[in-house]
Design goal:
Elements lengths: L4 E4 L9 H16 L3 E4 L13 H12 L22 H14 L2 E4 L27 H9 L5 E4 L6 E6 L3 E6 L7 E3 L7 H11 L4 E5 L6 H11 L5 E5 L2 E4 L5 E3 L9 H6 L4 H9 L14 H7 L10 E3 L1 H14 L2 H12 L10 H8 L9 H9 L18 H16 L6 H15 L4 H12 L8 H8 L1 H15 L1
Parallel strand pairs: 1-2, 8-9, 10-12
Antiparallel strand pairs: 3-4, 4-7, 5-6, 10-11
Helix pairs in contact: 1-9, 8-10, 11-12, 14-15, 14-16, 14-18, 15-16, 15-17, 16-17, 16-18, 17-18
C-alpha cells in the first residue's frame, strides 16, 4: 500500500478560521493514524486577498495546535517549492498541455478578468463561446497580442459520478458545471487548477476539505482524467454551524462569537482544549469518551467516524472542556499560564501567586475570568452590610459584629499567619458559642473580600492578603457594622 499523504493548503488571506483548523486537524490525524505524511502547502494564488503576516499566523497556529508537518515551505521536502507563487512557471506548461489534449481552451472575452476567481458565477462555457474557435482563429488572436485566459472544457451532456469517503457516491450533471478559468491572464493559476496540479505532483493520496467543494469535484476529476493521472481519495467534511441568541442555526460566523483559533486563545481557551473540541465537530469516536490528547486522537481517528450532518459549535461545551483541561493541569503549569492573564504581575500579589493559583485552578473555566475573580484581592470593593446576611450560616449584621469584635484581637495576636492558624480562631469562636463553623467563617470572609462568592475561604484569603491588610479590612467591616 502506498504511503498515505495528506495536505493542508490554506490561503494566506487572514486569520485561521475554526473550519480551516478542523480541516488541518483531520488531515493531520488521517496521516498520523496511518503512519503517513502531512504536507503544508501555501496556496497564495489569490493575490487580491493576500494579507501580510497571514503566513506567519498559519505557522503559529499549527505550532500552538501541535499539528507538525513533515513537508512545507519552512521545513522543505522532496516536492517543493511548497508555495504556489513560487511554482508559477509550471502551471502554464500544464494548462497548455491540457489545451493540446482538448481539455481546455483559450478564452479571449474582454470581460474575462471579472471572473478571474476561484469559482465562476455561471454554468456553461465562456460568454463569447471561445471554446468553438478554430485552431487558426486562436493562433491569430494570440499572435495579435489579445488578452487571454485558459478555461477548462466541460462537456455539456451526461453526468459525472465520484465516491467520497464521507458522503458516498455523488452524481453531478455536467450541464450545471462551468468552464472554470484555470490560468489567469497574469500567468497565475486559479485555486481549482493549482490544487489539482500540486496534489498530483506532491503525490497526495487523500484530499481532506470542506463539503462546499463537493459540487466542484467532478471538474477536478475531469482534469485528472484528461492528464491520465490517478484520482486521490476524497474526504469532504460537513459544515460547522453556529447558533445565535434566538436559537437560529446558520453557518458559523463572527456574529456567533470568536471563530478563529487566535481569538479563542486570547479569550482564555487552552489550545489543547480547542483542538480536542474541534476534533469532535464532525467526528465521533467509537466510545462515549470526550477528552483526548492529540496523541490519543491520532490513535483513535478513523475516517469512518466522520459524520455527514453539520456540526453546531457549542461555546458552552467548549467552556466545559476547557475547565476540565485546566483542572487536570499540574498546579505549576496552571500558575505559569494563568499569571499573564491575572494582571497581578509586578504587584505585591505576585509573591502570593502560587497560593492564588491553587484557589483559582478548580474554579476557572476561562483564563480571562481570572482578573474579575481576584479583583477583590487588589482592592476591597465597596459593599453594604446586607452582605453579612446568610440564612444557611445563621449570620446577619448583628451576629457579624459580635464575631468580628471578638475575633479581630485574636487574629492580631497570630504570629505565624497561616491558613490553619486563621481558621483556628474561627473554630475557637464556633466552639465557645456553640454555633456551626460556617457562621464566623462567613462573617470573616465577607469582611475580608466584600463579596459573597470568592475563590477560597476566610483563611485562604487572609493568608494571601497578609496580616496587615487583613486586619485593615476586618476593622473597616467592624466600622461599617457599628
Amino acid at each position: 500500500m502506498a504511503c498515505v499523504r495528506t495536505r493542508f493548503a490554506p490561503s494566506p488571506t487572514g486569520f485561521m478560521h475554526v473550519g480551516n483548523l478542523r480541516t488541518a486537524l483531520y488531515a493531520w490525524l488521517l496521516a498520523r493514524s496511518q503512519n503517513g505524511r502531512f504536507v503544508l502547502r501555501i496556496e497564495d494564488t489569490d493575490r487580491a486577498r493576500y494579507v501580510d503576516n497571514a503566513v506567519e499566523v498559519i505557522y503559529a497556529t499549527l505550532q500552538r495546535a501541535g499539528l507538525d508537518h513533515d513537508e512545507g515551505p519552512d521545513v522543505g521536502g522532496d516536492f517543493g517549492p511548497y508555495v504556489q507563487s513560487e511554482r508559477k512557471t509550471l502551471y502554464g506548461k500544464y494548462a497548455k498541455e491540457l489545451v493540446a489534449k482538448g481539455g481546455a481552451y483559450y478564452c479571449f472575452c474582454e470581460k474575462h478578468e471579472e471572473t478571474d476567481a476561484e469559482e465562476t458565477p455561471h454554468a456553461g462555457g465562456c460568454p463569447g463561446n471561445c471554446g468553438e474557435l478554430s485552431a487558426a482563429e486562436v493562433e491569430a488572436k494570440l499572435a495579435s497580442g489579445a488578452s487571454w485566459v485558459i478555461r477548462q472544457r466541460v462537456p455539456r451532456d451526461g453526468a459525472t459520478t465520484f465516491t467520497d469517503s464521507v458522503y458516498g457516491e455523488i452524481t453531478i450533471e455536467n450541464k450545471v458545471l462551468d468552464d472554470q478559468i484555470l490560468l489567469k491572464s497574469d500567468g497565475m493559476p486559479t485555486y481549482n487548477f493549482a490544487n489539482v496540479i500540486d496534489d498530483h505532483l506532491m503525490e497526495i493520496t487523500h484530499v481532506v476539505r470542506g463539503s462546499e467543494y463537493l459540487s466542484s469535484t467532478p471538474k477536478y476529476n475531469m482534469l485528472y482524467r484528461a492528464f491520465g493521472w490517478e484520482i486521490p481519495q476524497y474526504v469532504h467534511l460537513p459544515l460547522i454551524m453556529g447558533r445565535d441568541a434566538e436559537g437560529n442555526v446558520s453557518k458559523l460566523s463572527k456574529r456567533h462569537g470568536s471563530v478563529s483559533f487566535e481569538n479563542l486563545v486570547s479569550e482564555g481557551y487552552l489550545p489543547e482544549a480547542i483542538i480536542n473540541y474541534v476534533a469532535l465537530l464532525g467526528w465521533s469516536p467509537k466510545s462515549d469518551r470526550e477528552l483526548f490528547t492529540l496523541k490519543e486522537l491520532a490513535e483513535a481517528f478513523q475516517v469512518t467516524g466522520l459524520n455527514k450532518s453539520s456540526a453546531v459549535f457549542d461555546y458552552d461545551k467548549l467552556r466545559w472542556m476547557n475547565s476540565e483541561y485546566i483542572k487536570a493541569m499540574p498546579p505549576e503549569k496552571f500558575s505559569e499560564i494563568a499569571l499573564p492573564f491575572s494582571g497581578v504581575a509586578g504587584t505585591p500579589l505576585e509573591v502570593a501567586w502560587g497560593k492564588i493559583g491553587a484557589l483559582l485552578q478548580p474554579r476557572t473555566e476561562l483564563l480571562t475570568e481570572i482578573p474579575e475573580k481576584i479583583a477583590f484581592l487588589c482592592a476591597l470593593p465597596d459593599y453594604g452590610i446586607e452582605l453579612f446576611d446568610n440564612k444557611k450560616s445563621k449570620c446577619n449584621a448583628e451576629v457579624a459584629k459580635e464575631v468580628l469584635t471578638e475575633t479581630i484581637p485574636q487574629i492580631a495576636e497570630i504570629q505565624d499567619f497561616t491558613i490553619e492558624n486563621i481558621n483556628a480562631v474561627a473554630a475557637t469562636y464556633a466552639e465557645k458559642h456553640a454555633v456551626k463553623l460556617g457562621q464566623p467563617m462567613w462573617a470573616i470572609r465577607i469582611a475580608l473580600a466584600g463579596l459573597t462568592v470568592t475563590p477560597g475561604g476566610a483563611g485562604d484569603i487572609a493568608a494571601i492578603l497578609g496580616k496587615e491588610e487583613s486586619l485593615k479590612r476586618l476593622n473597616i467591616a467592624l466600622q461599617k457594622l457599628n
